[in-house]
Amino acid sequence: MARLAQTAGLTDVQQEILSTVRDFVDKEIIPVATELEHRDEYPQDIVDGLKELGLFGLMIPEEYGGLGESLLTYALCVEEIARGWMSVSGIINTHFIVAYMLKQHGTQEQKDHFLPRMAAGDIRGAFSMSEPALGSDVSAISSKAVKDGEEYVLNGQKMWLTNGGTSSLVAVLVRSDEGHPEGTAPHKSMTTFLVEKDPGFGEVRPGLTIPGKIDKMGYKGVDTTELIMDGLRIPANRVLGGVTGRGFYQMMDGVEVGRVNVAARGCGVAQRAFELGVRYAQQRHTFGKQIAQHQAIQFKLAEMATKVEAAHAMMVNAARKKDSGERNDLEAGMAKYLASEYCKEVVEDAFRIHGGYGFSKEYEIERLYREAPMLLIGEGTAEIQKMIIGRRLLEEYRFQG
User: How is residue 7 annotated by DSSP?
Assistant: First the structure.
């Protein structure tokens, strides 16, 4: 087990961070994850522990109180956390995307105001693109912002907001036609607003309501919600970057690094499924020997381990590409696509190795079996990833004839 998903070329600091996170996962997350998940209970003690470790500020620059680490370091930490419980990685992922968007696109005032408190974990971030009728078509966003003096008035309904209740800062993408005449391409008339709110449910500030948690098949513990804006007034200085019409590009930049994160989650869940499968195969006996000694089971273990290794390598490559300052949408799309598909397959094979016991809530693999499908959808479906990959390949391999 320990030989799988190793990462070459890490610094001493990176290795120390990962060792600390791995130890935290083994001692503080894995022993309680299944019980908390079955109760759909927010893991407050775990989140407090992550705050003490400084993980909410892992990629925030040191000048704002963060650790100033790379995307690779962050992704490897997410991999470890998802190995313990995928929902916990979701709690920090949306926070991380908002912090990244602020770092990359925020005004100096916005960075100074938000990033130090985000690094400390005192402000928790969430971001919101999707809407009830939207699906993967971001250009069809109907929520709208209208300029009114020195403020904007926002109206509309958003959907699938991770950390919707527990967050205190939401980056919301809406349509803003001000300065963008009729006929402007949809992606050029969208703006990201930084919406501050109180944690909780109900009306969390005038004009903004978080109705409650959406009941889900898996990915429990973390709160997934709607967000309803009805005359929500936001000052102009809370337009991300200070200029309207750039929201689509800002969000896509955030989603790009988010796809590396989802790939890392897939790697972590797949690693845990392999661990559970290989352990159970050596504990369970049939026909007078461990089932691990049966060729059919060995074939499954071989396939599972190979998929874990391949997904990890692609995830690391995508993270390093982004850290180098290069465009990585091709690598991130490939990593997200492969890791989520392989995660589903590895989890299912571990489930099959457990036989009837895999169907019991007493066994951890039952939880993983319900969690893995979310990765097939989050940050873009497999079909969306294939579109991105295909278009980028045609750019790279354009035939001149």
Answer: -
